[in-house]
Amino acid sequence: MTGNPLGTALVTGASRGLGAFMADRLAADGWQVALNYAHDTAGAGAVADRITARGHSVTLARFDVTDEDQVRTALAELGPIAVVVNNATGPQPLLTVDRLTWDDHLNQLRFFIKAPLLILQAVLPDMKAAGTGRIINVGSEVTDLGNPEMSHYVSAKAAMHGLTRSWARELGPFGITVNTVEPGWIPVERHAGSTEDEYASYLTTVALPHMGAPSDVADVVAFLASADSRYVTGQRLAVNGGKTMT
Asked: What is the mean predicted confidence (pLDDT) over 120-149?
């Protein structure tokens, strides 16, 4: 499918990993994908090439999601956005509590609270005018697991779902839904060094007897972006084979 009959879907942090699969799936569904990245021009270009090679529509959108001026300028150039997938993230170092600083917390909050807020404020007037919109926040199963040495990351992801719940109630009257997708351990490029023993250990805690694939997450994002999810808002959808159950 070519063109953009469904409108524009912004996927942040889409030059690799789960974001790249989300962008690919949304484009295949007929969205004009705005593929955001901050630094990896080569990676973003490769993802865009794969999408266009299949006849789908994509636009590269380079900007820092934590920079107010860059967000405002870039989204004004892209025009009305119908779907936002807040997937961008920064480094996630392991830090014991005795080494943790407030700046470590702020580094996570910039991506999981500040960036979604800046983007929402930029796209909200057009969504309100259209009477519809989809905000999809990419969370993590760690908010239920409470992983040690990750309290800065875990607390920021938990706060991100707090946005989801409050925004869902506030924006529902305007036809805008807000949901959180919570992936489990889904192997992508950055997990290339993981061992078979590590995978086997993880699988002992999962209800389904196999590791998830990036497409499993992308499929759920595509559902939440679609008209089929019109009566779903304020929810957390865990995509982790049943490792966590709510």
From this structure: 97
Assign 3-state DSSP to the chain and report helix, strand, coil percentages, each to 5.
50, 15, 35
153 is catalytic: yes
User: For the CA atoms of the chain, what is the radius of gyration?
Assistant: 17
- Residue whose entry in the numeric block shows the structure tokens 């957390």: 236
Q: Please state at what angle helix 102-109 crosses helix 151-171, rounded to 10 degrees.
A: 40
Q: Looking at domain 8-239, what is its CATH homologous superfamily?
A: NAD(P)-binding Rossmann-like Domain (3.40.50.720)
Quick check: pTM over 0.85? Answer: yes
pLDDT of residue 194: 80
Of 153, 199, 202, 231, catalytic: 153
Which residues, 6 or more positions from 13, have their beta carbon under 8 angstroms from its beta carbon?
19, 36, 37, 38, 65, 87, 88, 89
Reported as a pLDDT band with limits 50, 70 and 90, residue 2 is very low
